[in-house]
Amino acid sequence: MSSADMSSTESSANLAPVHGTNPPHSNNSPHSNNPTRDEGSKTSSSEQNAIKRLLWLIALVAGLASLFAYGIMRNPNRRDNIDSVLVGGPLPEFDMPLFERYHDRFGARYQFDEDGAQLAALTGKPMIVNFWASWCGPCRDEAPVLERTWRQYGDDVLVIGINTQDRSRDNARAFLSEFDLTFPNGVDENSRIGIDYGIFGLPETFFVAADGTLVYKHAGPITQAMIDIQLESMLP
Amino acid sequence: MADSPQPNSTPADSIRYPVTALDSGRNRVSKKIAYGLAGIGVLIVAGLFIYQALNTSLVYFILPSEHASNPSQYVNRRIRLGGIVEKDSVSFDDEQLLLNFYITDSIDRYAVSHYGTPPELFQENTGVVVEGGFENGVFVSDNLLVKHSEVYEAAPDGTVDLDMLRESLE
Amino acid sequence: MPELSLSLPMLGTASLALAMAVAVYAVAAGIMGAIRHDARLQTSARYAAIAVFMAMTTAVLTMQTALLTDDFSVEYVAQTSRAASPLWVKVVTMWAALEGSILLWAWLASGYTAVVAFASPNNALRNWAIVVLNVVSVFFISVNAFVANPFTLVPNPPMDGPGPNPLLQNHWMMAVHPVLMYLGFVGLTVPFAFAMSALINKRPGSEWMSQTRAWTISGWGFLGIAKIAGGWWSYEVLGWGGYWAWDPVENVSFLPWLTATAFLHSVQVQERRRMLKAWNLLLIILTFALTILGTFIIRSGVVSSVHAFGDGPVGPYFLAFFLLVVLVSFGLLMLRWDQVRDHGELDAIVSREGSFLLGNVLFLAMTFAVLLGTLFPLFVEAVSGDKVTVGAPFFNQVSLPIWLAIFALMGIGPLLPWRKASHQSLVKNLAWMVGIGLVSALIAYVAGVRKVYPLWTVGFAGYNFASIVLLLDAAIRPRMRISGRGFWSVFGQYAVESRRRFGSIIVHFSVIIMALGVAGSGGYRVDEQVRIEIGESVTLDSNYRLEVVDRFMEQTPYRVAGGVLVNVHRGNRQIASLRPKINVFLGQEQQPVPTPDVLYTVWQDIYLSVSGTVSPDQDFVVLRVVQSPLVAWIWVGAVIMLVGTFYCLLPKRRYVPVPARQAVPAS
Predict the structure, then answer these.
(1) Cβ(C285)–Cβ(C193) under 8 Å?
(2) B118 contacts in C (CB within 8 Å)?
């Protein structure tokens, strides 16, 4: 582009006055020029040129803006969509081993599949699925809340804890003993379940209706009040 | 007239235009045209070159059913094929280091042969994107990406929301 | 210490807010000062720039304190740090994620602004330049303050966090690479600011570029080294044995470097010949605009990339700022068009300025091609809805010929005189260069190099080497004749007195070295996957034998690694023991990352990366074996380039001949 600009400049303008793109008028004597008229016509034409160039620029910018705006809008991977994907649909299946302390009452494994919970005598109930880890601070806050819920609604609602991304099994066991959690807790081996459920952080809690569809997903620590509100709408 | 010095200009004039005085107006115009033509020529060549290069190295991202509906469009082209790893179709030959499986979008399925060990998160029923081309009806891949998210799980009746699958793999 | 953990993030947010307010004031005071010609207001704006820097420093120190004391009440710390990480990882975690990197960028921007405000001489351009720099600071601080606050609180702090992305904590280079990158970006903001000031002040001469020469060279140097450092990190960490993949994220940070390189050359034409005024302004505006555009593309996820930067909330802000920058700066350039268009004319294409101009056009053509290839998927999707990616072949096909042309110009350009070259000297020089180039290519051909681009590269490397010898010869021989001193004495004087010239020769020399490295590793890289039983060995085609001796495990508080011990034999001699491994970082268990191990040698690297798993119940291991000829020379070249750049920046000094015998007799 610049090479064209350069070739278009007048070579003679080298020593012309500063605003020397306009040649002097045919009369060589500088005194006979009408300086005001000359100024005026020159400014208006250069102004016109400037406006023309600016219009081009604005068109270019508008084009770029719309292209990128489109790019931002169509991007499907935005995080705020994630909730809506699972909510209203069936929960992904999973199958996990339970901690030893629950074996006597609930068996060694807990499976959840299309037909709902496969845990003896616990099918066909609404369910609260809570993901936690022993190192996670808010999980400590909500553990007593979940335990209270389980003791209060235990006949009508299944509470399930899934220990995920923990440092060690022993840390998790210590956590269970510390809060004396009596609802079944299992281990998410290889973080498989966490990935399937698309969890972003800990804790996260899923509310599942009796027919196995996800009603509500809560990211972050949960309170008794939130649990009560959700259960009220889920229980008959 | 005045925009170029006259041939019979006074000595003072020739001092005022020391180097470029010999450049007559006509000369300049023809120079301008020459530059302009050269510029346009270069632009055309560059444009054709870029067009050609783009045309041969565009890699389309498609689903198996999209390929099945118009296979001739993708002959001898490198493509990125996205879909779900079909259940019970995975086998890994650890001698040849060949990973074989079927990729499906629940409408059409293709056999995939990938050279290399399976990535950490690779398993049945997950979304994958393989890159390569078809050879004798088998998709030979040299690049395998696992794209995991809950949306890849097919609905209980085996149907898949194609738009959603497409978006989530992209 | 609950009081401390509460007050820390508040201190951070408060200092951000303060910095923001003062920076806005600095902009206002600078503008008012300029309009009213009020020197006191202008001075006030300069002091405000220092205050902004101090407030930002407080914010950075606060963030560092939060990271080092494991204050997980700060969301950024909770999401990216981990109590068990080593000290250096905690320090660099500040730029391991979005909020922190913007904080780093804003801090560096305010720091450079403060330095300019105080160190640059008092002249017509300074005030508006500081205004522009402060506007840039305001933008980055506002991103921190409004969209990506690094000091957001977590209501219920966790006991520990997951730690930074394993790919980033796996190599020390990741501590350095972003800082270098931002130093480059921020450094090139300074000439941009002075260029804007020149346009605003209607002084589009050469003063803006002469005043910012050191900033330009250092910014360009940082950017180049940052790119190569990133490539080396990719080589050492990612496990595929390459350093450049034409990924969008790599491309967009390459663009400003290309335009900056063009700028670095064309400023010399303006300084010498008063030509290319508009062109230089265009290049520096483009460089700055591309910096912002690149950040937008990386951070908004508009173009899909294998680098998982995600799509933070900052995309639209960077887009808006990019459009604003383009509109205002190009708009200003167009308003001043009549003053900046050239009045001189190129005397001859075959001249120093002609070659620089041609090189500039080539750099710009490359910029355009890379940008087009990077954004093309977006165009296609917007027009037809098809999802496509543009593969590496496009970039190679388009950029390799351009590179070769630039490489050819690099040899001949510095040998040409300004204005017009005499045909005689040109032909003589070219004969030497082409002759040596042909000989080099022939030797390479005999040695077995048959691919086109590597052959051309070797040929042009010889040609460029000859050019450097001719350059030094032309500089030193006449001085020897005149002064009658020996070669080394004259050489030393030349090297010290013509710093920029000599520095540029060093940099060009490093380019030759790196080009050979790229040609060797790009053209003759062998990448294979090899299955080896534990205790057995496999002989590669290149006569290297890999013997897998044993498996091993390593455990630290924050990571577990499993790997294999591999002895590399050549002939009957064991030449190295390599330990490639796979790491699992605590808190990031889903993303195991390999640590390849590399045997660096002069001729070819042996690069081993564990593919798949290493487990006790598996009696074999699959190794990815990459053999890249000459790749080590890229890193060597980078060091030479760094030296050359630094050499250009050394302050000018008169050369004092060491044996000062020619004492002037007292008259």
Answers:
(1) no
(2) 612
Residue A59 touches partner C, C-beta closer than 8 Å: no
Q: CA geometry: angle at C70 spanning C68 and C76, to 5°? A: 95
Distance of residue B158 Cα from the nearest chain C Cα, in angstroms? 25
C290 and C228 Cβ atoms separated by less than 8 Å: no
Q: Is C245 exposed, middle or buried (0-12, 13-18, 19+ CB in 10 A)?
A: middle
B47-81 pLDDT tens trace: 888 888 888 888 888 888 888 888 888 888 889 99
Nearest to B16 among A15, A24, A195 (CB): A15
Q: Residue B74 gets which letter from DSSP?
A: G
Query: Are the CB atoms for C489 and C657 separated by under 8 Å?
Result: yes
CB C376 within 8 A of CB C304: no
Complex ipTM: 0.75
How buried is residue B93: exposed, middle or buried, by Cβ count under 10 Å (0-12/13-18/19+)?
exposed
pLDDT of residue C507: 96
> Is the pLDDT confidence value at C548 over 50?
yes
When the pLDDT of each residue in chain C is averaged and rounded to a whole number, the result is 88
Q: What is the pLDDT of residues C23-37, one digit of tens each?
A: 999 999 999 999 999
| 3 state SS of C560 | strand
Are C397 and B57 in contact (CB < 8 Å)?
A: yes
For the record, the structure tokens of B4 come out as 């170029």
Residue B36 forms contact with A (CB below 8 Å) = yes
pTM for this entry: 0.79
What would the pLDDT profile of C448-490 be if each residue is shown by its tens digit? Answer: 999 999 999 999 999 999 999 999 999 999 999 988 888 899 9
Beta-carbon count within 10 A of A110 CB: 22
Q: Is the pLDDT of residue A129 over 50?
A: yes
Select the residue from B6, B9, B13, B20 to test the A interface by mutation, using most A Cβ atoms within 10 A: B20
Compute the nearest-CA separation of C623 from chain B (Å): 10
CA distance readout (Å), C447 to A100, B124, C440, C458, C528:
69, 49, 10, 12, 24
Q: What is the pLDDT of residues C488-506, one digit of tens each?
A: 999 998 998 888 899 999 9
Nearest-Cα residue of chain C relative to residue A192:
C590
Which residues in chain C have Cβ-Cβ distances shorter than 8 Å to A21? 338, 341
- How far is C252 from chain A, CA to nearest CA, in Å? 15
In this prediction, residues C576-593 reach a mean pLDDT of 81
Put simply, the answer to whether B39 touches A4 (Cβ < 8 Å) is yes
Q: Residue B119: which of B140, B144, B98 has the closest Cα? A: B144
Are C79 and A69 a contacting pair at CB < 8 A? no
Burial class, B34, CB count within 10 angstroms (exposed 0-12 / middle 13-18 / buried 19+): exposed
- In terms of Cα–Cα distance, which of A180, A182, A231 is closest to A205? A231
- Predicted confidence band at A95 (pLDDT cuts at 50, 70, 90)? confident
| Cα gap C634→A115, rounded to integer Å | 60
Q: Do C592 and B120 touch (CB under 8 A)?
A: yes
Question: Cβ(C281)–Cβ(C333) under 8 Å?
Answer: yes
Q: Which of A49, A72, A202 sits opposite C316 (nearest CB)?
A: A72
Helix, strand counts (H, E) of chain B: 4, 7
**Interchain contact, A72 vs C341, CB within 8 Å:** no
Does residue B64 contact residue B109 with C-beta atoms inside 8 Å? yes
Phi and psi based region of residue B14 (left: phi greater than 0; alpha: psi -120 to 50; beta: remaining):
alpha
B87 touches chain A (CB under 8 A): no
Mean pLDDT of A59-88: 66
C278 CB neighbours in chain A (<8 A) are 2, 5
Average pLDDT over residues C412-439: 89
